[in-house]
Amino acid sequence: xxxxxxxxxxxxxxxxxxxxxxxxxxxxxxxxxxxxxxxxxxxxxxxxxxxxxxxxxxxxxxxxxxxxxxxxxxxxxxxxxxxxxxxxxxxxxxxxxxxxxxxxxxxxxxxxxxxxxxxxxxxxxxxxxxxxxxxxxxxxxxxxxxxxxxxxxxxxxxxxxxxxxxxxxxxxxxxxxxxxxxxxxxxxxxxxxxxxxxxxxxxxxxxxxxxxxxxxxxxxxxxxxxxxxxxxxxxxxxxxxxxxxxxxxxxxxxxxxxxxxxxxxxxxxxxxxxxx
Length: 276
Ligand code: SF4
Ligand code: SF4
Known about the structure:
Shape: globular
Largest sheet: 2 strands, antiparallel
Radius of gyration: 19 Å
Bound molecules: iron/sulfur cluster
Low-confidence stretches: none
Order of helices and strands: HHHHHHHHHHHHEHEEHE
Number of strands: 4
Mean pLDDT: 88
Strand content: 5-15%
Oligomer: single chain
């Protein structure tokens, strides 16, 4: 049963990889049938970070149409369904989480216990956007999507690209320090991904509208066992007073809590039940 759950998750991340990464880039291949896009194929083409900064600085006319379409899809899907891209498709977020499962827990730090993710991720994103407004080029300098692309090119194609110190640091932070050696494996997603922060902010706004989807805890079923709290890759569940509570600002709808809850108290739904 759990094998099927992880198999489905892995298939989702492989799909994400073939949609956005070379040599496949199927998202680019598909969308470029309908819009004209100059140039090269790379993770930079459907990048969601660059247009965020371009929108903010009033440079939207120079944003790539494919990346704008991607940002639009992220905004709409996160508003209605939550950050499903982060939880079900993004291979960059998933890789350290999945690899981290082979590292024994005694070697991992539960960073979120000491540093609260919500203010840091929104604060970091605000700083990222503001620095661009000041003319400082930040989108690619700490991009974990880009480091994965460079990593894959090196491993599979032997292509060694000269890279910057900031990208090397990003690689170490994303895959190791905030990755496999952080409990949950998604420390980079939690603290340093502006796209993830945007998706969660849209998810938060969506919760004000009836009919949108989110993870829900049934308080009549929850027995406060803390299994979900322990398993959540984003460290977004806290059990208080024997009841699990999900933080809407960093839950990525991965479904791990739902899968592991022994009381079947967690669901992903667009319907409010009286006991939630
Ligand atoms: S795993 Fe289920 S029963 Fe246990 S605390 Fe979480 S929601 Fe409640
Ligand atoms: S609360 Fe559940 S669905 Fe949300 S990130 Fe944590 S484990 Fe995934």
